[in-house]
Specification:
By secondary structure, this protein is mainly alpha-helical. The protein is elongated and about 65 Å long. The protein is built from 3 helices and no strands. The protein has helices spanning 2-20, 36-70, 74-112.
């Protein structure tokens, strides 16, 4: 274990000067992203929201499937209700993440002018 740790540290220490002195490397993100606010916005709107929206839709479809297959069974209906509740909570969290990202972006843009 110690040997692997030493190898990892030496690898990082050996490549760090190359990464620090790298000149002319283009920004891998969309053009014009040079502030923290824009970075947060791109991460949330281009990665978190699309993936999360697909997951929320699949969770709602799954909870609907649970309602249909419950066929009036009170225990299965309770499981279906709980699945739908957590799907709705997930959708609210996803929307909240987008709102927080917008607030952070607007706050940082107002501070920096």
């Amino acid at each position: 274990m110690k040997k692997a740790y030493i190898s990892l540290v030496s690898l990082i220490a050996g490549t760090l000067p190359l990464a620090v002195s790298a000149q002319g490397i283009e920004n891998p993100l969309k053009g014009g992203i040079d502030t923290l606010g824009k970075f947060v916005e791109v991460i949330v709107t281009d990665i978190v929201i699309p993936i999360g929206a697909v997951i929320v839709v699949l969770a709602i479809i799954y909870s609907g499937f649970l309602f249909v297959t419950a066929q009036g069974n009170p225990e299965k209906l309770e499981v279906a209700k709980r699945a739908f509740l957590w799907s709705a909570i997930g959708a609210i969290i996803l929307l909240g993440a987008w709102v927080i990202a917008q607030v952070i972006e607007n706050t940082i843009s107002q501070i920096t002018g």
